[in-house]
Structures are given as C-alpha cells and as structure tokens.
Amino acid sequence: MDVKDIFSYDWSYLLPEFIILGFATLLSLLDLFAGKRLGKQVIGWLSLVGVVLAAVFVFVNVNTLDKPYSYMADMIRIDDYGNAFKLLFLGGTAFALLISLSYLKKGEVQHSGEYYYLLLTGLLGAMVMASSADLITLFVGLELLSLSSYILVGLRKKSLQSNESAFKYVVSGGIATAITLFGMSYIYGLTGTTHVYEISMRLAEAGMAGYQFLVYVAFVFLVVGLAFKISAAPFHMWTPDVYQGAPTPITAFLAVVSKAAGFSLLFRVVMISFFNVTDGVGRFFFQEGSLYLGLMAAASMIIGNTMAIRQTNVKRMMAYSGIAQAGYLLVPFVPPTTLFFSEVIFYLFAYLLVSFGAFAVIMVVAQEQQTEDLKGFAGLYHRSPIMAVAMSIFLLSLAGIPVTAGFFGKFYLFMGALAQENYWLSAIMIVTSVISYYYYFGIIRQMYMRPGTTEAKMAVPKGIWVFVLVMAVATVFFGAFPGLVTDYVQTHFNPSFDFGNMLPPNFQ
Amino acid sequence: MTVSITSYLMVALILFCVGLYGALTKRNAVVVLLSIELMLNAVNINLVAFSKFGLYPAVAGQIFTLFTMTVAAAEVALGLAILIALYRNKATVNVDEMDQMKR
C-alpha cells in the first residue's frame, strides 16, 4: 500500500457525495436562519435539486471512469458496482422527496426542514455503504443511514404509533449493529486489517491455519446482523411495526433505499471477504455460505408471504410483502453467478418504480379515508379510476404477472436459480409467489368489487396524480422492454462480468 | 505478566451475551438501551485485544474502536430522545406496554 498525499487524488469523482453532503449542510443552516420566512416547500424542492444534480454527476462518472478509482486505500472506492446502486438510491430518494412534498402539506410532521435534510443524510450514508471497501467506512455509512432513518420514522412526534415504531426500530437496530460489529471484530482479529481485499486473502490463510471455526462464527454474525437492514428472515420482526408507524413516504424510503443499501453492503463485504476461504473441499462461500443465504431466502419468502395474508392494515401487509421481496433478492446468491449483478439491479429497479407508485397511492387513500385499513380501498375504482388502475398495475408487478417490470425481475431470478440447478429454492419461489397472489388480489378485489362508503370523486393532489401515472407507465414500459435496462447495466456497469468491477483482477 | 488473548475474548463474549439477554428480556426501556451499550462495548474489548494479540497485530482495531464508541454514543442519545418523545404521549417506559400495533 503506497501512501499518497490527499491533494494528489482527483476528488472530482466524489462530486455526487460532496453535493449531497453540501446540500444537507446548507439546507440545515438555511432552515435554522430563514426557516420561518421561507415557504415549507422550498427546502423540499432544493433537496430535490441536490439529488438530481448528484445523479447527473454519477452518470458522468459512469461514462468517464473505465476502471475503479480508489481513495485512501479503498476507504472510498468509485466503481461500477457502487455507481449502479447509487443511481438506485438517488432515484429512490428523489421519488421519496416528490411524494413527501404532498404528504407534508397535511401537517402531520411539524419539522419539515429536518425531514428533508435527514433524508439527504440517510442517502449519503447509503451512498457510502455502496462505494467503500473498508469495514470502518462501511460501518460509518451504515450507521449514518440507520440513525437518519430512526429519526425519520419517529418524526410524527405527536403520534404514539410513530414514537413506538421509532423506539422499536432503534432497539432492534442497535442489537443488529452490535451483532454485525461483533462479527467484524472477529474478522479483524483473524486478519489484522479492515481493508476488505486484504481480509479476503488473510481470512483464507487463517482458515487454513486452524481458525476455521472462528471464520464461520464471523460469517454467521455478519450475515445475521446485516439481515436486519434488508429485513430478511432471522431479523425481520421489526419490519411490520416500523413500516406501519412511519410516515408513508419514509416507509417507501425504508422499503427501497434502505433495503438496497443493505444488499449492496452485504454482497460486497460478505462475498469478497469469504471469497477465498476453503473448507477443504471447495470454496466455503459457494457451498455452506450460500446454503445459509439460501435458507434465509426460503424462510423470508415463506414467512413474508404467509404472514401478509392475515394483515388488514395495508402498510403492514406491504411490510410482509417487503420481507418476501428480500427473500427473492437473496435467491441469485445461492451461489452467485456472473449474471447475478444485472439480475439484482433489474429487480431492484422494478421494485423501486412499483413500491413508490404503490406507496403513493396508499398515502393518498389513507389520508383521504383517515384509515390505513384495507377497507379504505373499497370502491376506489368508482371514485378515481386512474388511481385504481395504476394501483392494480403496481400490485400485478409485485405479484410478478407478465407485462410488468416485476415479472421480468422475478423471471430473471427464477431462470438464474434454475440454471444453477437450485430446484428446491426455485420451487419455494414459485409456490410462495402463488400464495402472494391472494393478498395482492385482496386489494384489487376491494378496489373494484366492494362498495365504498361514498361514491364521491376522490381529490388527488396534482403532483401525486402525475407521479403515480408516470410510475405506472414506466412499470408497463419496462415490462414490455426489459432489455433496455439489462443491456444498459451490462454494457455500462458489468462489461467484463466481474460484478461491476467489484472483484480485483488478481482474484481467481 | 501477560494475560492471554482468550481471557479478553471470554470477557467480551460474556459481556455480549449479558447485553443480548438484557436487551431481549428487560422490561424497562432504559435498561434495554443500556444492554445494547454493553453489547457494543464487548465489541470494543474484542477490537482492542485483537489489535495487540491478534494474528496480525495492527493499530487499525484501536481506530475502529474510536468510531464504534462515537456511533454507540449517538445511537443511545437518539434512543433516549425517542423514548422521551414517547413518554410525553404515554407516560411509561415499560416495553411491554408499547403494543399499539400488535395484531
């Protein structure tokens, strides 16, 4: 490792992060000094400008950078893997800001300034999680995202539900952090470094030198702790309560951005660190390691989809559906193939469009009906046909029915699993998907076939109306032409099938 | 006289388990937060012990400890702030009574 002067780095590749950091700082100062005089929406729009600007510079990085750029021994590492995830986070945060602009008009959250810049700091944490190859930086990014989202969940200060879900989130998040760190401390003990690529080599040596048991223990602690962030099975219990109590745009943010960030961290750290570890027969990660992830995936799919059937609260139901989605997303890692990267990015992209669309509709209906109950959707088709049709498209996509983006997302995962001859996992995936039709169609049944309490036209804010329409059209469009996204991912992020430059060249 | 690494690791492991037990079973919310702090401190003991007696002793572990301590402090401060907000709406610190959303 050569030591470089910090001025000798080309810092321009970090512009997206600097922009988000700058906007978060400046907006908090602006809110402090001029918050009373400015309209409530101004800070929201300014945050949106920051997010869009950062996304532009990520695109610039994608086009100009042909090999990974590393700062300070990979403390921050700009590579295609990180860039792809960053675009998803930026898109998700932009959508969250857009629906928040309408949500905050109702005045349930008094501190609208904090709301916006905490979203930005959360986004910054997620971006750091996606683009670092050092345990310390990754941990700090993880905590930046977690701490921001704890506050965001509890921001409806007067609502007991919100307080309660924030407290549950803090406690379960704290336990998960401690477990992750405990795993990391064993990894550090066996390797003496926090640099993920060095860990990869030394962990294999430690495994050979008779410390195999400790290596496995570290693996289990790390995976169990990180399962919290992606809300997968051993650590999913917080999800329904937190999703239910959080403001709806924040629920969508947690469901998409926070989950995607967890995945980006899990895959990079766990896969690289344990890549070279052998169990005497073959690579540990591709056998026992991925079997463990497979069991997690199966449990998430089964628990998520069966528990969702019993729910009457829509947000709770979406939470269980989110647990199931986390299960699907773990499928391509059992064991990882060269295609897993584009599969996962496409799935997350489809999930991003669909979740935000669905949560926007849920938000409007819940605010108008004053209830988050499933019954609030009754007769929606007669009151606002476009909302009902759009919601049906989102639900069909979540269920994975053709001509929607969600179908191809699931289809790629399923074909990937079949190609790996992973029949048991594919079977569970199909069976649980069929179970999931029941509760997704439950909402559709309410919308079209049940009489509502009123037949009056539903007042939908213009912004939400446009947003939902765009999401619905995009869902169908990318369902008809999924190749547009997968080709883009393949040519720009993963041309040499090395998981978006995640693996260093000397890896075999 | 030197203490072997196993003793440090045992202390950390015991501390971690006590913390986990406390966090999962205690009814008082403040004690739950305290237990989480115990778990995080167990990690610190591990890291510092490893930075001297690990397979590859290096100072990185002590630096990691500084970060974990800072973050742990922030996390518990946040937890207490949320607890105070909750206490204002419902005068209880009893975890069992936080059951608004049970279905």
From TrEMBL, chain B:
EC numbers on record: 7.1.1.-
Source organism superkingdom: Bacteria
Membrane-crossing residue ranges in chain numbering: 6-24, 31-51, 63-87
Molecular functions (GO terms): NADH dehydrogenase (quinone) (non-electrogenic) activity; quinone binding
UniProt GO cellular component terms: NADH dehydrogenase complex; plasma membrane
GO process annotations (BP): ATP synthesis coupled electron transport
Key words, A-Z: Cell membrane, Membrane, NAD, Quinone, Translocase, Transmembrane, Transmembrane helix, Transport
Keyword Membrane: yes
Membrane topology, as annotated: Multi-pass membrane protein
Catalytic activity: a quinone + NADH + 5 H(+)(in) = a quinol + NAD(+) + 4 H(+)(out)
Broad class of the protein's primary localization: membrane
Entry's localization field: Cell membrane; Membrane
Alphabetized HAMAP family for the sequence: NDH1_NuoK
Quaternary data: NDH-1 is composed of 14 different subunits. Subunits NuoA, H, J, K, L, M, N constitute the membrane sector of the complex.
Protein function: NDH-1 shuttles electrons from NADH, via FMN and iron-sulfur (Fe-S) centers, to quinones in the respiratory chain. The immediate electron acceptor for the enzyme in this species is believed to be a menaquinone. Couples the redox reaction to proton translocation (for every two electrons transferred, four hydrogen ions are translocated across the cytoplasmic membrane), and thus conserves the redox energy in a proton gradient.
Protein family according to the UniProt entry: Belongs to the complex I subunit 4L family.
The protein's name in its UniProt record: NADH-quinone oxidoreductase subunit K
Organism of provenance: Brevibacillus reuszeri
